[in-house]
Each structure stands twice: as structure tokens, then as C-alpha cells.
Design a protein that fits this description.
The protein has 187 residues and is an alpha/beta fold. The chain folds into 2 domains: 53 residues, Spermidine Synthase, Chain: A, domain 2 (Roll), CATH 2.30.140; 121 residues, Vaccinia Virus protein VP39 (Rossmann fold, 3-Layer(aba) Sandwich). The chain is built from 6 helices and 9 strands. The strands form 2 sheets. The protein has a 5-stranded antiparallel β-sheet with strand order 1-2-3-4-5. The radius of gyration is 17 Å and the shape is globular. The termini are far apart. InterPro entries: PABS, PABS_CS, SAM-dependent_MTases_sf, Spermi_synthase, Spermidine_synt_N, Spermidine_synt_N_sf. One of its GO terms (molecular function) is spermidine synthase activity. Belongs to the spermidine/spermine synthase family.
Length: 187
């Protein structure tokens, strides 16, 4: 944050930047995995930033959360057991919980700090954690997939960009394990 503005300029998006005016810094610290910043913006509500990259703003989060959750759930004829890798802000959980057919929602988030700041500063997203069908695992998503050969009807990867702690979620071994765990609804 410089001169009252947050500026995002990442290596993945050369030639462009995103800037938001900062009203108040709510939390800023380094977790075991990444730099976590939450600030109140002047026109986008509270904003979650991980390693300098905006993850979610209260103003427009619904468009992302709804698409990443509802499309795969409606594509499956009868989703009962859903796994979310990442998604520590809880918004995807909130959307999955709207599906009455879902009996079990498992989330695996590597960074408890993301869960904690989201519950405190992004409660409209994090209310997904309040659903009794939700089980939370705080650990590496790729390792979780290797250790839990349970079957899931739908697997949603809601990760940050392919740098830092989420990079393994963009590699072939993760998708190979995911394919072994996934129960294909065409059977």
C-alpha cells in the first residue's frame, strides 16, 4: 500500500495493473505460507490479498464463487460428496451449501491464516464454514489427495495463482491423483 492505494502488478499479467483505494488496513501479516493482507477499500468492500495478488473483493466475489461452484454441481446428475481444494475464504463452500443434494462438503486449505482472516473480515463469504456438512482439513491439497483415496462426485480447485504455495495444484501429478480419486458420473 502506497499513498493510500493498493497496486497489483503481477508477473502473470504483464502490461496491466489493478489499483484500489485503501480506506483502512484490517490485517497484514506473514503466515507460514504467504503474505496475507485484508483491507477495506473505498468502493469494493473488504479485499483479500495473498502475496500481493487480489483474491477476492466483497463487491464482485459472487460472480466467481457462483461460477466455480454451480457449473460443476449442475453438470453432475446427483452430487453427494464434494471436495474443495483451496477456497479458504469460504465463498465456494457457501455456494455448494445451496445444493440440497450434497451430503458432504470437504475443504482442504493449506493456510489456516486465510480461513481465520476470512471468518473475521469476510463473514458473508466465510459463512460457508457454518454448514454442518462441511469438514475442514488444513493441509496441502496435493498431499491430501494422495492420502485420501476416497471418492468424490465433484472436485473443485479454488486456488490462488500458479506461484507460491498453490503451484503444485497446477502440475500433472496433482491432476493424475485427482483423476484416480474422482468418481466419474458417466458410470
Amino acid at each position: 500500500v502506497k499513498d493510500g492505494w493498493f497496486h497489483e502488478r503481477g508477473e502473470l499479467w504483464k502490461g496491466q495493473a489493478m489499483s484500489l483505494e485503501v480506506k483502512n488496513i484490517l490485517a497484514h501479516y506473514r503466515s507460514d505460507y504467504q503474505d496475507i493482507l485484508v483491507f477495506e477499500s473505498t468502493n469494493h468492500g473488504n479485499v483479500l490479498v495473498l502475496d500481493g495478488v487480489i483474491q477476492v473483493t466483497e463487491r464482485d466475489e459472487f460472480s466467481y464463487q457462483e461460477m466455480i461452484a454451480h457449473i460443476p454441481l449442475y453438470a453432475h446428475p446427483n452430487p453427494k460428496k464434494v471436495l474443495v481444494i483451496g477456497g479458504g475464504d469460504g465463498g465456494v463452500l457457501r455456494e455448494i451449501a445451496k445444493h440440497e443434494s450434497v451430503e458432504e462438503i470437504v475443504i482442504c486449505e493449506i493456510d489456516k491464516g486465510v480461513i481465520d482472516v476470512s471468518k473475521k473480515y469476510l463473514p458473508t463469504l466465510a459463512k460457508g464454514y457454518d454448514d454442518p456438512r462441511v469438514t475442514v482439513h488444513v493441509m496441502d491439497g496435493a498431499k491430501f489427495m494422495e492420502e485420501n483415496q476416497d471418492s468424490f462426485d465433484v472436485i473443485i480447485t479454488d486456488s490462488s495463482d500458479p506461484i507460491g504455495p498453490a503451484s503444485v495444484l497446477f502440475e500433472t501429478p496433482f491432476y493424475n491423483v485427482s483423476a484416480c480419486v474422482f468418481v466419474c458420473f458417466l458410470r
